[in-house]
Structures are given as structure tokens and as C-alpha cells.
Amino acid sequence: MLSVSFSPLIPAYALWAVGAVALLLAVLAVLSRGPVAILRAIALALVLLALANPALVQEEREKVKDIVAVVIDRSTSQTLGDRPSMTDQVRAELERRFGSVADVEPRFIEADDGDGDDGTRLFAALSNGLADVPPDRLAGVIFVTDGVVHDIPPSVDGLGFKAPLHALITGRPDERDRQIKLLEAPRFGIVGKDQTIRAQVMERGGTGSAFVTVRRDGQVFARQQVRADTPFSVQVRIDHGGTNVVELEVEGLPNELTQANNRAVVPIEGIREKLRVLLVSGEPHAGERTWRNLLKSDANVDLVHFTILRPPEKQDGTPINELSLIAFPTRELFQQKIKDFDLIIFDRYANQSVLPSSYFENIVRYVRDGGAVLVAAGPEFASYGSLAQTRLAPIIPGTPDGRIVEEPYKAQITKTGERHPVTRALPGSEQQPPAWGEWLRIIGSQVQSGATVMSGANDLPLLVLRREDKGRVALLLSDHAWLWARGYNDGGPHIDLLRRLSHWLMKEPALEEEALRATAAGRNIRIERQTMSETADPVTLISPVGQEGSVALSETQPGLFTAQVESRELGLHTVRSGDLITFVSIGPANPRELTDVFSNTEALQPIAEATGGSIRRVATAGDRSISVPRILAVHSGSRFAGGDWIGIRPSDSAIVRGVSVLPLALGFLGLVLLVGATLAAWLTEGRRRA
């Protein structure tokens, strides 16, 4: 390739100035001396040419192949139906077609789901895949996709190239599908209150109505028929603190595209207004303040505390109007408002006829309906006034045997307690003997039911936990927990023990004996199975599209089995173990990729037509064959598509291998021309004067 280049010996502005002066002098010379002054103008022109320093440049170029980018959509929506096989067939056919096109190099780019919930980002994948390719070397772009793309530029100016863009659409125009769409979904709710969820069933090729099943934490509690494309509401009671997972599932259509979007999930965080605790101390004692301080330190606990200072048998003749004590409101607490409390604690309480028998029956019903009772026993538990001798006895897990052992001992975690979340890994229990202080008293008792999680002197039961119908009962057979709080012999983990105990009684989800939990970190799912059994069966992991897999668990702590698996699918995963069920979401619970699953040709059409490209399906309704257009090179024109072909625009891109430069205004030739022009002007003007 031959061309002329200029490399001025003086700055460009000086060259232009000299040129202007030379032109002015030449014009004046021609006007004053006539045509003979043309030779002077030629000499000045040669001087200017020398200053401009022209040269002949010859480049040796080697043509390079044009690049055609083929972006293969591998997003979640491309896994539906027969789209994966269609995509593979189209790619194989494109590879074969490009093999017969000269001077073209196809570059195949795989595009997965975007990070988070970004959906399908084909243009971002295209930009990353062509980072090392100059824009003028790009001859064309071909998308193999279902048309559901979420990063389409608003105009052709945002593409960064001028090559034609073609889209080959997978999927079929007669696809049918039904999905459920959330319209309003609460994130938080008060425990015991109802929350409203609004949703809508959307369908293509459906029947116009469908049954929707509503589940809470895996249990069905409602089923109703709704009309398609019409909003409907569901009332959900928030049963417990922590995450309440509500599922809305619509029945599927025969041969529908996917059932992964037939379910919408709403995780609602249950918040307790206040945990109401009633603490009844039978008499003032050293450990009374320990319970009070512990419960008052919890901002989420509303404590009502009564201490029996004047039992009925204590009569000294003081008139009632002169007493400064408050009468114990037994009827109000144990009959009218007993269901308002989440936990009742009897701290060294003896039956002194303060509570009639009917109130103890109320407490038994309260527990069996879901309430909780903690008996913190002292010497009174072994006396005639023991609560075990009242109508409360059917729910108390132990019966006193009359022994009161008063000797130093260190509380021990039993084999059962090592697996129970209330006492497992209690700080200090990792050593033997445990690294905590001694207690000095324990009440002997025969345990009839429940789980003994701690033992004391002579292996006597110290802490017993029991479930009673819907409620829970705990029996602490010592009144010396306060020794840990006071730091006796270095103290002990009284806050951990008593707080776990009270929260277990109030049904804190993290302290359930049988529990299944799952959390996600990136693409990794961590599964935890809490159980009181020695072993744990494998759990079932169900992917968002319904594929089931078995996951084996390994024991990391007594009673705690874990596993970690990696998932490549976005959306809500279901984990089951027997009757237990939990959910974990990789990315969003209702991913963007499954919101609109129908293949379409409309989304990419404006941007493709603006580049001269085209949009076309590779399959038609009812036809199982795949049709891929021919690929032709189009050197001119603004349209790059026809009935059965798509075009690419070749470029003249080349690599410069060598450059030869020949100066024109320097050296012997330039000197001869300049001297010759000057001599000719002198001779001509001399003859004219002669």
C-alpha cells in the first residue's frame, strides 16, 4: 500500500505563515513583472515543499480474519423444556456453517446467569468476550437465546460496534405455562397476629382458574380456587418468632414449560411484642435476685414479679389497713390473664394455701395448651408443701424422695444433655471436671418423664426438661444457681444456662431438640440437623426445578449433624428430613430468570434491526426440526438478512508487517530542482532586461 506523508521541518503554524508570505510575494511578482515571475513562484514553492518534507510511504500489510461473536445463552430460562438440546444443535450447526466461510473466525461466548438477581446479561458477556478485539475487526454478532435478555442497551450507540446483530431464538411460539406472582408480601409480622399476602396467578394456554395451596413452614393450612390474572389475598397467622416461611403453590398445567415458577415463597420474620414472664417467689432468699436480674436485663421480656412475704398462716393481729403489702392478685393472674404469659416461674414456692386447687388446674390447662412452667426447687420441694403434692403434679417431671443433699458438688452435663441445645457446649463443660464453681445443695427426686440434662451430687437429677402436649415444663432441683452469679469458686455460666432454659421454655426456634436449618453463602448451602438421636439420616435436597438429591450428614458436635453442598441453580431450595422441612434461597427466593419464561422475538428486535440484523426462531410450533439460516458475507448495503440467510460485514483489517519511507524533498533530487528553478528564473529575467 503506497501513500504520501508529510513531516514538516518547522512547526505547522510557521509553515503556513511562510506559505502565506510566499504566495503574497508570488502574486506581487506576477503583477509587477508579468509571466516571467512564475519561475520565482516555482522556486518559492519548491522551498515550501522542502520545508514540508514529503515522503513516499509503502506499507506491507497482511490481512487478518474477521471476528464473528456467537453468544450462547446458558441462563436458567434456557434450561426449560427442550431449549438445552435446541441450543446445542444450533451451536453445532453454526460451527459447521462457519467452517465454509473464508477469512472469518467465530468466537463462541458462554453466558450464565448474572450475579445476584441480574437475570440474563448477554451484552455484558459479549463485551467481556471481545475485550481484546478492535471494534473494526468485528464482522457480526449472533445470539443464541430464548429472547429473555435483561441488559439490552436503550440505543445502538451503546453497543460499541457497528456490525450487524442477529438473534436465533430457541423455544416455541406455542409454549404454555402457569405461574404465581406476588403483589404484596410482608417482611415482618407480630407473633399471634395475621398478615395479608396478595398474589396473582398468571397463565398462557391455561383454563382460566386454578387451585392455590398455601403452606406455612411446610404444613398445608389453606386451599382455594382463584381466577387467573385476578389478584387474590391470603391471611396468614404468624405462629412463632424467627422466620415463618409461607408458600403459595398453584397447580400445574399439563405439559407446561416449567413448574419452578408455580410456587412463590414469602419468608416473614416473626417478632414478639414482649415475652411476658410471671415470676412467683415463695419467700425471700439469696437466689431470688438472680432470676430477677436475668429477666430484667432482657429488653424483650416484660417481667411481673411477686414475692410471698406474708403467707395466710402468718397472723399477728396487725389490721389490714395498716399493712403496706400488696395483696397477691391470684384470681387476676391465674384465672383471668393466665394466657397472657409466655412463662410462669415458681421460685422456691411452697403450697401455703395462697393458690386454691382450681388455679393449679388452670396452670395445667395453660401448659397443655402451649404455655410453659419452670419450677426452681429448694428445700420446700421435699416438704409437705411441695408443688408435687398439688394438682400441678401431673405435669411436674419428678417426684421428691425426701432427700436434701447439702454438700459441695460440680454440676455435670449428662449424655442426654450433651445433645440437648439447652446444655450442649455450655461454657466450661469442655473440661472434666467442668471449669465452673460448686453448688452446695440438691433436692433428691425420682424422675418419671422428661430428659435429665444435668446431674449433681451422687448423680442425682439436677435439671429435667419435659414436653407436655403443646407446652413445656422444666424442673431445676437446686436453689444454688445464684452461687455462679456471685462468683463463688470462680462462678459459672449462669447467664447462658438460665437464659437458654427460659428461651427453650418459650419455644425459641434455635433451641429446639429436633430442628433442621439451612443457610446459604454464595452458591454453597450449609445444612444443620439438630437431633437427640445418636445418628441422623440423610436429608433430601430439592432444587427450584424439582430435582431431588440425597445429602449425607456428618456429626460435628453431639446431637448436631452438618453438611455442605454446592448448587448452581438460583432460587428456593427445599430441605427435608422426615417431618422437618426448611428452605434456603440461592440468590433471590423468586428469581428474575423465572419471572418471564416465555421465549420471545420482541425484546431484541429494535436493537437488532437498528444494526441491520434480524430476529428469527429456529423452531416453529409443532415442528421438532431445527432451522439455522445460511451465513453470507455482505460487502455493501444496510441490510444483512434475507429469507433463509443472515449476513456479516467483512472488514479490511490487516496487520502491518513493514514500512518503507522515500523522502521527496531532500537529497540530490531536491537540490537539482531548487537550483534549476533559481537558474531558470535568473536567465529568463536577464534576457528580458537585455
Work out the radius of gyration.
Answer: 44 Å
The CATH homologous superfamily of the largest domain corresponds to Class I glutamine amidotransferase (GATase) domain
Strand order of the largest sheet: 16-15-17-18-24-23-22-20
Number of DSSP helical runs? 12
- Stated plainly, the CATH topology of the largest domain is called Rossmann fold
Q: Percent range for helical residues?
A: 10-25%
Total domain units: 5
Class per helix and strand makeup:
alpha/beta
Q: Give the total of beta strands.
A: 36
Name of the CATH architecture of the largest domain? 3-Layer(aba) Sandwich
Instruction: Choose one word for the global shape.
Output: elongated
Distance between the termini: 52 Å
Largest sheet: 8 strands, mixed
Mean pLDDT: 86
Percent of residues in β-strands: 25-35%
Low-confidence stretches: none
CATH first level of the largest domain: Alpha Beta
Quick tags:
12 helices, transmembrane, 5 domains, 36 strands, membrane, 690 residues, alpha/beta, Immunoglobulin-like, elongated, eight-stranded mixed sheet, Rossmann fold
Question: What features would you describe in this structure?
Answer:
With 690 residues, the protein is α/β, with parallel strands linked by helices. It has five domains: 2-62 and 656-687, no CATH class; 65-171 and 598-648, Rossmann fold, CATH 3.40.50; 177-272, Immunoglobulins (Immunoglobulin-like, Sandwich), CATH 2.60.40.10; 275-312 and 326-511, 3-Layer(aba) Sandwich (Rossmann fold), CATH 3.40.50.880; 515-586, Sandwich (Immunoglobulin-like). It is built from twelve helices and 36 strands. The strands form nine sheets. The protein has an eight-stranded mixed beta sheet with strand order 16-15-17-18-24-23-22-20. Helix 1 runs antiparallel to helix 2 (38-52), helix 2 (38-52) packs antiparallel against helix 12 (667-689) and helix 6 (330-336) runs parallel beside helix 7 (357-368). The chain is elongated, with a radius of gyration of 44 Å. It starts with a strand and ends with a helix.
